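B., you asked whether I could sanity-check this one before it goes into the benchmark set. Here's the sequence:
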Amino acid sequence: MKIDIRSLSENQIIEFFEQKGFDSYRGKQVYEWIWKKSTYSFDEMTNLSKDLRLMLDSNFVINHIEVDKIQKSSDGTIKNAVKLFDDYTVESVLIPTDDRTTACVSSQVGCSLDCKFCATSKLKRMRNLNPDEIYDQVVTINNQSLKYFKRSLSNIVFMGMGEPLMNYNNLIESIEKISSDKGLNISQKRIVVSTSGIPKMIKKLADENLKVNLALSLHSAIEETRNSIMPFSAKFSLEDIKESLLYWYSKTKRRITFEYIVWKGINDSVDDINALVNYCKYIPSKVNLIEYNSIGDETFKSASQSMINLYKDLLEKNKITVTVRRSRGKDIDAACGQLANKEVSLN
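And here's what the prediction gave me:
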Protein backbone atom coordinates (compact mmCIF):
# COMPACT_ATOMS: atom_id res chain seq x y z
CA MET A 1 0.00 0.00 0.00
CA LYS A 2 1.36 3.41 -0.96
CA ILE A 3 2.15 5.94 1.76
CA ASP A 4 0.57 9.38 1.73
CA ILE A 5 3.64 11.55 1.19
CA ARG A 6 2.13 14.35 3.25
CA SER A 7 2.30 12.13 6.33
CA LEU A 8 6.10 12.41 6.12
CA SER A 9 8.24 15.20 7.52
CA GLU A 10 10.58 17.17 5.30
CA ASN A 11 13.54 15.25 6.72
CA GLN A 12 11.85 11.93 5.97
CA ILE A 13 11.28 12.95 2.35
CA ILE A 14 14.89 14.12 2.06
CA GLU A 15 16.05 10.80 3.53
CA PHE A 16 13.94 8.92 0.97
CA PHE A 17 15.71 10.68 -1.89
CA GLU A 18 19.15 10.17 -0.35
CA GLN A 19 18.48 6.44 0.07
CA LYS A 20 17.57 6.30 -3.62
CA GLY A 21 20.87 8.00 -4.51
CA PHE A 22 19.54 11.48 -5.26
CA ASP A 23 20.60 14.87 -3.90
CA SER A 24 18.84 16.02 -0.72
CA TYR A 25 17.56 19.18 -2.38
CA ARG A 26 15.12 17.03 -4.37
CA GLY A 27 13.31 16.25 -1.11
CA LYS A 28 13.12 19.94 -0.31
CA GLN A 29 11.65 20.61 -3.75
CA VAL A 30 8.95 17.97 -3.24
CA TYR A 31 8.15 19.29 0.23
CA GLU A 32 7.67 22.76 -1.24
CA TRP A 33 5.35 21.39 -3.94
CA ILE A 34 3.09 19.51 -1.51
CA TRP A 35 2.82 22.25 1.14
CA LYS A 36 3.75 25.73 -0.05
CA LYS A 37 2.34 25.17 -3.55
CA SER A 38 -0.41 22.76 -2.41
CA THR A 39 0.14 20.47 -5.36
CA TYR A 40 -1.95 17.29 -5.48
CA SER A 41 -0.24 15.61 -8.44
CA PHE A 42 3.36 14.48 -8.90
CA ASP A 43 2.99 15.26 -12.62
CA GLU A 44 2.75 18.97 -11.75
CA MET A 45 6.20 18.98 -10.09
CA THR A 46 7.80 20.40 -13.21
CA ASN A 47 11.30 20.96 -11.82
CA LEU A 48 11.62 17.19 -11.33
CA SER A 49 12.50 14.84 -14.19
CA LYS A 50 9.85 12.51 -15.52
CA ASP A 51 11.71 9.54 -14.03
CA LEU A 52 11.69 11.15 -10.59
CA ARG A 53 7.98 11.87 -10.84
CA LEU A 54 7.28 8.28 -11.86
CA MET A 55 9.35 7.06 -8.91
CA LEU A 56 7.31 9.23 -6.55
CA ASP A 57 4.09 8.01 -8.09
CA SER A 58 5.10 4.37 -7.63
CA ASN A 59 5.89 4.90 -3.93
CA PHE A 60 3.46 7.52 -2.71
CA VAL A 61 -0.01 9.02 -3.01
CA ILE A 62 -1.26 12.50 -2.18
CA ASN A 63 -4.61 12.07 -0.46
CA HIS A 64 -6.45 15.35 -0.77
CA ILE A 65 -9.86 16.88 -0.31
CA GLU A 66 -12.29 17.67 -3.11
CA VAL A 67 -15.04 20.25 -2.90
CA ASP A 68 -18.12 18.19 -3.66
CA LYS A 69 -20.66 21.01 -3.43
CA ILE A 70 -20.58 24.78 -2.98
CA GLN A 71 -23.49 26.83 -1.60
CA LYS A 72 -23.49 30.61 -1.66
CA SER A 73 -25.47 32.70 0.81
CA SER A 74 -27.18 35.98 0.04
CA ASP A 75 -24.70 37.64 2.42
CA GLY A 76 -21.65 36.34 0.53
CA THR A 77 -20.91 33.40 2.82
CA ILE A 78 -19.76 30.25 1.01
CA LYS A 79 -20.23 26.74 2.40
CA ASN A 80 -18.20 23.85 1.05
CA ALA A 81 -19.15 20.20 1.31
CA VAL A 82 -15.67 18.70 1.37
CA LYS A 83 -15.18 15.08 0.32
CA LEU A 84 -12.25 13.27 1.93
CA PHE A 85 -10.17 10.50 0.35
CA ASP A 86 -12.25 7.81 2.09
CA ASP A 87 -15.55 9.36 0.94
CA TYR A 88 -16.50 10.88 4.27
CA THR A 89 -17.67 14.47 4.07
CA VAL A 90 -17.16 17.52 6.27
CA GLU A 91 -18.13 21.15 5.80
CA SER A 92 -16.08 24.33 5.84
CA VAL A 93 -17.19 27.92 5.47
CA LEU A 94 -15.82 31.14 3.98
CA ILE A 95 -17.13 34.12 5.95
CA PRO A 96 -16.57 37.51 4.31
CA THR A 97 -16.93 40.95 5.85
CA ASP A 98 -16.05 44.34 4.41
CA ASP A 99 -12.38 44.12 5.36
CA ARG A 100 -11.58 40.47 6.02
CA THR A 101 -12.22 36.88 5.03
CA THR A 102 -12.42 34.18 7.66
CA ALA A 103 -12.10 30.43 7.12
CA CYS A 104 -14.19 28.29 9.46
CA VAL A 105 -12.68 24.80 9.29
CA SER A 106 -13.63 21.36 10.61
CA SER A 107 -11.42 19.10 12.70
CA GLN A 108 -13.48 15.88 12.92
CA VAL A 109 -15.90 13.88 10.80
CA GLY A 110 -18.93 14.28 13.05
CA CYS A 111 -18.28 15.25 16.67
CA SER A 112 -17.11 13.64 19.90
CA LEU A 113 -19.42 15.73 22.08
CA ASP A 114 -23.16 16.04 22.70
CA CYS A 115 -24.13 19.72 22.84
CA LYS A 116 -27.90 19.64 22.40
CA PHE A 117 -28.14 22.91 20.46
CA CYS A 118 -25.57 21.98 17.79
CA ALA A 119 -26.45 20.11 14.60
CA THR A 120 -22.99 18.57 14.28
CA SER A 121 -23.35 16.84 17.65
CA LYS A 122 -26.18 14.76 16.15
CA LEU A 123 -23.61 13.08 13.92
CA LYS A 124 -21.55 10.18 15.16
CA ARG A 125 -17.83 10.90 15.24
CA MET A 126 -16.38 8.74 12.49
CA ARG A 127 -12.76 9.84 12.67
CA ASN A 128 -10.39 12.72 13.21
CA LEU A 129 -9.20 14.79 10.28
CA ASN A 130 -5.55 14.51 9.31
CA PRO A 131 -3.37 17.64 9.38
CA ASP A 132 -3.34 17.81 5.57
CA GLU A 133 -7.16 17.63 5.43
CA ILE A 134 -7.39 20.61 7.77
CA TYR A 135 -4.71 22.40 5.77
CA ASP A 136 -6.52 21.73 2.48
CA GLN A 137 -9.68 23.38 3.80
CA VAL A 138 -7.69 26.56 4.46
CA VAL A 139 -6.08 26.42 1.00
CA THR A 140 -9.48 25.96 -0.64
CA ILE A 141 -11.04 28.89 1.19
CA ASN A 142 -8.03 31.10 0.48
CA ASN A 143 -8.42 30.34 -3.24
CA GLN A 144 -12.14 31.13 -3.03
CA SER A 145 -11.39 34.40 -1.25
CA LEU A 146 -8.98 35.38 -4.00
CA LYS A 147 -11.47 34.38 -6.70
CA TYR A 148 -14.62 35.99 -5.29
CA PHE A 149 -13.31 38.81 -3.10
CA LYS A 150 -9.90 39.63 -4.63
CA ARG A 151 -8.10 39.28 -1.31
CA SER A 152 -6.26 36.62 0.65
CA LEU A 153 -7.66 34.87 3.66
CA SER A 154 -7.15 36.95 6.81
CA ASN A 155 -8.36 34.75 9.68
CA ILE A 156 -8.93 31.09 10.55
CA VAL A 157 -11.31 29.75 13.19
CA PHE A 158 -11.50 26.12 14.29
CA MET A 159 -15.25 26.36 14.75
CA GLY A 160 -16.46 23.91 12.13
CA MET A 161 -17.43 20.30 12.69
CA GLY A 162 -15.85 18.54 15.67
CA GLU A 163 -14.05 19.41 18.89
CA PRO A 164 -10.52 20.52 17.96
CA LEU A 165 -8.98 19.56 21.30
CA MET A 166 -10.22 15.98 20.82
CA ASN A 167 -8.02 15.84 17.71
CA TYR A 168 -5.12 17.45 19.47
CA ASN A 169 -1.98 16.21 17.71
CA ASN A 170 -3.40 16.77 14.23
CA LEU A 171 -4.68 20.20 15.28
CA ILE A 172 -1.21 21.25 16.41
CA GLU A 173 0.49 19.90 13.30
CA SER A 174 -2.01 21.65 11.02
CA ILE A 175 -1.47 24.97 12.81
CA GLU A 176 2.29 24.60 12.49
CA LYS A 177 1.98 23.84 8.77
CA ILE A 178 -0.47 26.71 8.19
CA SER A 179 1.75 29.23 9.96
CA SER A 180 5.11 27.99 8.65
CA ASP A 181 6.97 29.95 5.99
CA LYS A 182 7.24 26.59 4.24
CA GLY A 183 3.44 26.38 4.27
CA LEU A 184 0.82 29.14 4.07
CA ASN A 185 2.73 31.58 6.29
CA ILE A 186 -0.44 32.80 8.03
CA SER A 187 0.24 34.37 11.42
CA GLN A 188 -0.82 32.24 14.39
CA LYS A 189 -2.25 35.42 15.92
CA ARG A 190 -4.96 35.22 13.24
CA ILE A 191 -5.99 31.70 14.28
CA VAL A 192 -8.68 30.94 16.87
CA VAL A 193 -9.08 27.51 18.42
CA SER A 194 -12.60 27.06 19.77
CA THR A 195 -13.32 24.44 22.40
CA SER A 196 -16.31 23.34 24.42
CA GLY A 197 -14.06 23.14 27.46
CA ILE A 198 -11.65 20.29 28.21
CA PRO A 199 -9.40 21.59 31.02
CA LYS A 200 -6.51 19.13 30.61
CA MET A 201 -6.23 19.90 26.89
CA ILE A 202 -6.53 23.67 27.39
CA LYS A 203 -3.50 23.49 29.68
CA LYS A 204 -1.66 21.34 27.16
CA LEU A 205 -2.38 23.88 24.42
CA ALA A 206 -1.10 26.67 26.68
CA ASP A 207 2.20 24.82 27.00
CA GLU A 208 2.72 24.60 23.23
CA ASN A 209 4.15 28.12 22.98
CA LEU A 210 1.90 28.90 20.04
CA LYS A 211 0.43 32.36 19.48
CA VAL A 212 -3.10 31.22 18.66
CA ASN A 213 -6.17 32.61 20.38
CA LEU A 214 -8.63 30.60 22.45
CA ALA A 215 -12.42 30.71 22.41
CA LEU A 216 -14.60 28.70 24.77
CA SER A 217 -18.24 27.78 24.20
CA LEU A 218 -19.63 28.69 27.62
CA HIS A 219 -23.36 29.44 27.19
CA SER A 220 -23.97 29.37 30.94
CA ALA A 221 -21.90 30.11 34.04
CA ILE A 222 -24.38 28.12 36.15
CA GLU A 223 -23.23 24.50 36.45
CA GLU A 224 -26.66 22.87 36.32
CA THR A 225 -27.78 24.88 33.31
CA ARG A 226 -24.57 24.24 31.38
CA ASN A 227 -24.71 20.52 32.06
CA SER A 228 -28.30 20.35 30.83
CA ILE A 229 -27.47 21.82 27.43
CA MET A 230 -23.94 20.37 27.14
CA PRO A 231 -24.21 16.99 28.94
CA PHE A 232 -20.55 16.04 28.46
CA SER A 233 -19.60 19.08 30.58
CA ALA A 234 -20.72 17.24 33.73
CA LYS A 235 -17.22 15.72 33.60
CA PHE A 236 -15.59 19.15 33.70
CA SER A 237 -16.76 21.59 36.36
CA LEU A 238 -16.81 25.31 35.72
CA GLU A 239 -14.24 25.62 38.49
CA ASP A 240 -11.89 23.22 36.67
CA ILE A 241 -12.41 25.12 33.43
CA LYS A 242 -11.71 28.39 35.22
CA GLU A 243 -8.45 27.00 36.56
CA SER A 244 -7.37 25.87 33.08
CA LEU A 245 -8.23 29.26 31.58
CA LEU A 246 -6.26 31.08 34.25
CA TYR A 247 -3.36 28.77 33.44
CA TRP A 248 -3.81 29.59 29.75
CA TYR A 249 -3.63 33.31 30.49
CA SER A 250 -0.62 32.93 32.79
CA LYS A 251 1.28 31.17 29.99
CA THR A 252 0.09 33.15 26.94
CA LYS A 253 -1.09 36.55 28.26
CA ARG A 254 -3.97 36.33 25.75
CA ARG A 255 -7.55 36.90 26.82
CA ILE A 256 -10.11 34.17 26.34
CA THR A 257 -13.24 34.76 24.27
CA PHE A 258 -16.41 33.28 25.73
CA GLU A 259 -18.91 32.26 23.04
CA TYR A 260 -22.36 32.64 24.54
CA ILE A 261 -25.83 32.04 23.09
CA VAL A 262 -28.87 33.35 24.97
CA TRP A 263 -31.96 31.10 24.77
CA LYS A 264 -35.50 31.80 25.85
CA GLY A 265 -36.35 30.05 29.10
CA ILE A 266 -32.89 28.52 29.47
CA ASN A 267 -30.39 31.24 30.33
CA ASP A 268 -32.34 34.48 29.90
CA SER A 269 -32.63 35.68 33.49
CA VAL A 270 -30.79 38.26 35.57
CA ASP A 271 -29.36 35.40 37.64
CA ASP A 272 -27.78 33.99 34.47
CA ILE A 273 -26.29 37.38 33.62
CA ASN A 274 -24.90 37.85 37.12
CA ALA A 275 -23.34 34.39 37.03
CA LEU A 276 -21.61 35.24 33.76
CA VAL A 277 -20.41 38.59 35.10
CA ASN A 278 -18.94 36.92 38.18
CA TYR A 279 -17.23 34.23 36.09
CA CYS A 280 -15.69 36.80 33.78
CA LYS A 281 -14.38 38.84 36.70
CA TYR A 282 -12.04 36.00 37.60
CA ILE A 283 -10.79 35.37 34.07
CA PRO A 284 -9.22 37.89 31.65
CA SER A 285 -11.84 37.57 28.97
CA LYS A 286 -14.32 39.06 26.55
CA VAL A 287 -17.78 37.83 25.62
CA ASN A 288 -19.26 37.17 22.19
CA LEU A 289 -23.05 37.07 22.39
CA ILE A 290 -24.01 34.89 19.43
CA GLU A 291 -27.28 34.84 17.57
CA TYR A 292 -28.88 31.41 17.83
CA ASN A 293 -29.31 29.45 14.62
CA SER A 294 -32.15 26.96 14.75
CA ILE A 295 -31.49 23.27 14.08
CA GLY A 296 -35.17 22.36 14.34
CA ASP A 297 -35.27 21.59 18.08
CA GLU A 298 -38.13 23.56 19.63
CA THR A 299 -36.43 23.39 23.05
CA PHE A 300 -34.03 26.08 21.89
CA LYS A 301 -35.41 29.45 20.87
CA SER A 302 -33.64 32.76 20.67
CA ALA A 303 -34.11 35.03 23.66
CA SER A 304 -35.72 38.40 23.16
CA GLN A 305 -33.65 41.28 21.87
CA SER A 306 -34.34 43.14 25.11
CA MET A 307 -32.73 40.31 27.10
CA ILE A 308 -29.69 40.25 24.83
CA ASN A 309 -29.44 44.03 25.27
CA LEU A 310 -29.63 43.56 29.04
CA TYR A 311 -26.78 41.05 28.90
CA LYS A 312 -24.72 43.56 26.92
CA ASP A 313 -25.54 46.47 29.23
CA LEU A 314 -24.74 44.63 32.47
CA LEU A 315 -21.52 43.17 31.10
CA GLU A 316 -20.38 46.60 29.95
CA LYS A 317 -21.32 48.17 33.30
CA ASN A 318 -18.98 45.65 34.89
CA LYS A 319 -16.21 46.65 32.47
CA ILE A 320 -16.33 43.37 30.54
CA THR A 321 -15.77 43.68 26.80
CA VAL A 322 -18.77 42.33 24.91
CA THR A 323 -19.79 42.11 21.27
CA VAL A 324 -23.03 40.90 19.70
CA ARG A 325 -22.23 38.69 16.74
CA ARG A 326 -24.80 38.42 13.98
CA SER A 327 -24.88 35.11 12.15
CA ARG A 328 -23.90 34.82 8.54
CA GLY A 329 -24.85 32.09 6.07
CA LYS A 330 -28.08 31.09 7.85
CA ASP A 331 -29.94 30.65 4.57
CA ILE A 332 -27.55 27.84 3.56
CA ASP A 333 -27.19 26.26 7.04
CA ALA A 334 -23.65 27.59 7.28
CA ALA A 335 -24.03 29.57 10.49
CA CYS A 336 -22.63 28.66 13.89
CA GLY A 337 -23.95 25.27 15.06
CA GLN A 338 -25.64 24.39 11.76
CA LEU A 339 -22.97 22.29 10.03
CA ALA A 340 -24.43 18.81 9.75
CA ASN A 341 -23.83 17.35 6.26
CA LYS A 342 -27.53 17.50 5.48
CA GLU A 343 -26.89 16.32 1.97
CA VAL A 344 -24.68 13.39 2.93
CA SER A 345 -25.27 10.32 5.08
CA LEU A 346 -22.42 9.24 7.35
CA ASN A 347 -23.90 5.80 8.03
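One thing to flag: Residues 66-332 form a domain with the TIM Barrel fold (CATH 3.20.20.70). Otherwise nothing jumped out at me.
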